[in-house]
Amino acid sequence: MRAVIVAMAVAIVLGASPATAAADPGASPLDLADPSVGGLDPALRTAVQNAATAAASEGVTMTITSGWRSPQFQQQLLDDAVVTYGSLAAARRYVQTPEMSKHVIGQAVDVGGTGADQWLDANGSRFGLCRIYANEIWHFELATDATGVCPPLLPDAAS
Ligand SMILES: [Zn+2]
Prior knowledge:
By secondary structure, the chain is an alpha+beta fold. Helix content is 40%, strand content 13%.
């Protein structure tokens, strides 16, 4: 877990896209001992576990590169992004505030694993999982409506 945090922080400080950070293998959706997984809302965690199982049956390994985050860690990510992008307004396109982040309340996951984000973008609604932001293909939340349809993408986290 510490290694994941450090790797992500380093990637952001260096201005690399979070997709680069996803090169970290991430945690198994079944690894409850990892606070990033154990801190997730149970409904979201179950949905991701079911999606990961289905993805695995098609040869796609899905991990969680970032799930639950402490408010302090979210603030650190935002502070780092301000340094990287030059202003709070620019940073907010990529990183939410601790008050706004769904990660802090355990209701968002960033997925890793080769092709896992594309797989979940195409198949996630079967599990209630939706990509939320046009500029973050790895970020998913439980967001389908009563008919199982995902909402339109928001341009970015500042929307
Ligand atoms: Zn995210």
